[in-house]
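Below is a filled-in request sheet from our internal design queue. Each sheet records the structural input a requester submitted and the sequence that came back. We keep these sheets so that new team members can see what a complete request looks like end to end.

REQUESTER: design group, bay 2
PRIORITY: normal
MODE: inverse folding
CHAIN LENGTH: 170
BACKBONE (tokenized):
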């Protein structure tokens, strides 16, 4: 049995919005099934009674970490814990970037660990509709509507990696 770690990315803020509750639920179920630890951010919360092993990346000055910042910390966490599989849980519209960032950081910064590890999306994420992810209650305007997300995400998709790294470094 390969050693598994789960990385969950929030989609919006705060933890009580629908998208983050969906991500937390899927993450918790997978963690319990595989007895796997979780790496995530403060906007993904789990009931204490589940007794899950969770490592949180902290917000800095009330500002949530970027996707790239989470990916960098998650790869360090995975490497330090010798995970052979990393399962990514993220909102459908965000998944491409979460996977790209983790895989790219692993390839560029993790050294030998990356060559033995598999990084893949949680398969259950594809069963949700776009409407499940966008929440008008989000305090991050770009996750409130699909239109706002696409305006921001479109630019990121076509941005050169070097520029994205500089912009997302925080």
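RETURNED SEQUENCE:
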């Amino acid at each position: 049995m390969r050693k598994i770690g789960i990385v969950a990315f929030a989609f919006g803020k705060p933890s009580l919005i629908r998208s983050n509750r969906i991500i937390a639920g899927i993450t918790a179920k997978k963690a319990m099934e595989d007895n796997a630890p979780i790496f995530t951010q403060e906007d993904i919360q789990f009931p204490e009674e589940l007794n899950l092993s969770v490592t949180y990346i902290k917000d800095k000055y009330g500002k949530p970490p970027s996707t790239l910042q989470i990916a960098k910390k998650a790869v360090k966490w995975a490497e330090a814990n010798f995970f052979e599989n990393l399962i990514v849980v993220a909102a459908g519209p965000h998944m491409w970037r979460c996977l790209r960032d983790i895989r790219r950081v692993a390839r560029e910064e993790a050294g030998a660990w990356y060559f033995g590890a598999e990084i893949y999306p949680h398969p259950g994420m594809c069963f949700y509709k776009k409407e499940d992810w966008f929440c008008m209650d989000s305090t991050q305007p770009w996750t409130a509507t699909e239109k706002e997300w696409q305006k921001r995400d479109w630019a990121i998709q076509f941005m050169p990696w070097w520029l994205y790294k500089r912009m997302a470094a925080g």
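SHEET NOTES:
- DSSP finds seven helices and five strands in the chain.
- The mean pLDDT is 91.
FILED BY: M.R.
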